[in-house]
Amino acid sequence: MSLPPFVVRLIGIGKYDKFPHLRPEGDTNAKDLSDFLKGDPNFNHDIDMASATEPVTRDKIFEMFMELRKSVDRSKATLVFFSGIGGSLGSGGPSIICPADIGVNDKSKGITDQELVSQFDSISRFRGNNITFLMDCPSSQFKWGNPNSFVVISPRTATSENPKAFTQSIIEVLSREKDSLAFLTVQSFADKVQTFMSNGIEVDCRGLNVDRLLFNPRKGKAHHAFIRGRAETDGTLTLFAGSAHGVTEDSTFGIYHHHIAHNQSPIVHLQTERVQDSTTSKLRLPSSDFKVPPVFYAVETRCPLEPVDIFKPVDINLHQYRSWNEGEEGKTNITLERLSNSDTDKVKIFWNGFADPGRIKPGPENCLFLPADELDKVIRHAARFKYIVGSLANTVSPPLFKVKFQEISTASGQPTGDNLLKGDLVELDIQGGEERMYCLAIRNLAKFAIWPFVFRCDPREFKIEPLYTPTQPLAPESKLIIGGGDGDSLMFEQWKSDPGPALTYVKIFATKTRTSFSFLTQDRSSIENKLREVGEEAKASSNNSDGEHRHAAVQPATETEKRKSDTKEDWQTRQITVQRTYGKGKPRVRTLSMETLPADLLKRFRSFGQKASAMASPS
């Protein structure tokens, strides 16, 4: 499969003058990769390798970086490969890659991780954020943060037993994936490289844009619905989602070769064999003559649902998919109402809240309008919304984290005032014309580091969207501020015609193990519906008289109770209900964004995922 042109720069160091006993074979690694790329007609590229006849000094490496700053086609991918010695300069010191002349004189120093970040930031101004840094030295001590200008792929620990292991794994993947190179993302490429690494060495993949295509970055990215999976050497199939993600033994997944929302169909459907722990599950093996790829991607097509209780007029029809129950007026999650005085067949959907006290009476416009023929799909989205936001829970004692919800000072950009969170409820009385900003403060109470994930959940359209994704763990007794000086604030947009109360839910997950929760996202797009086979339930229901509904699953009541009583201590969830009431006065309809921030605050309010404050002080 032919790929668009891309740029490759290779830096390989085979010996160090000051340290002759070090023989990392970086020069032969760079040559091996160069020879492979030049010899394969699939790769149409501009390739340059640091001279093998002269020492690759610090100055020469910076000269190569300088050459990359020339203006070029910004759609081209740029790959920079380094193979040599790298590591940390003592406890708490910076991490470096070592040029050939390191230690020869006072000026011959290593290149620190922050110098590399600065170089790639500078190069990206000319080439775009299309840079992939393949670093063949241990990366566990490198502090990349979550860079936007480049992504880095590297082994976390040393490959001293086989200095060529990382390079050989790269070549092996590129050779075996010839038919799907156009669909390799940075993350999927790293996943596949890891499968060929010896001794279980983990391959790290860091950066804000790891979901972009590796060789054609402007042509797409991974879809959030996919979950990574791996075929193990013992013949089992591991899915990297577990009890913390809501996976049960009743879940079924479509299995795909890659995680690009391209015109691909699932190669097989597999059911969960067992939920192994909070972040992994095992899938049932397919028939013996079917081989699952070493790295695969899964989409939930039969997932646990929590049936929504609905009150509806008799003239509104819904198919019975097991995703809803009919209830009494005033006691249901959802109220349906046919739009009156309209020539179109439209329905109003009012979200009334979960079965918690203080049920909210919906305002006149705090609802979703949609054609009646779309109602069945939306009700299934509502059932998934209810399960993930309201029913997926794990309470541990003592808790893993503590949460505060505070207003942000527009002057300082920092939290101010009392904690507005009372129990699991935040009540905001917003007067007309006010523009309030808020933040979450999460403090780690556990004796181990945790990975906190935060979603904003909109019941008006049953959307679940990431609000904060961690790039590093939160240490014990440390505090994370989401909003304020190092992130977007939690603004709540006023409905244009609705003076009544409105709801938003904030769902927090914390895990001991690093994982991804991105597949919990729900945006109700046509692509997502197709991947999750939303809308197929009616057909499955009518075609399966034996009650085995392939795509319309409901978690059995006994299993639900079992999940609610789950007290595993390595993960926890918290749901916060944010109820806002707008007082008298003409409301100013405005959502704070990077474009609308005053200049003096623009620097302080950065996008989520790039930086977050992780202060060591207690809350």
Please tell me about this protein's structure.
This protein is of the alpha+beta class and 619 residues long. The protein folds into 3 domains: 214 residues, Rossmann fold, CATH 3.40.50; 84 residues, no CATH class; 159 residues, Immunoglobulin-like (Sandwich). The protein is 17% helix and 27% strand. It contains 10 helices and 31 strands. Strands 2-1-3-7-8-9 form a 6-stranded mixed sheet. Strands 10-11-14-13-12-15 form a 6-stranded antiparallel beta barrel. A 6-stranded mixed sheet has the order 23-24-30-29-26-27. Helix 1 links the parallel strand 1 and strand 2. Helix 1 runs parallel beside helix 4 and helix 4 crosses helix 5. The radius of gyration is 26 Å and the shape is globular. The C terminus is likely disordered.
Brief summary of the model shown:
Helices cover 17% and strands 27% of the residues.
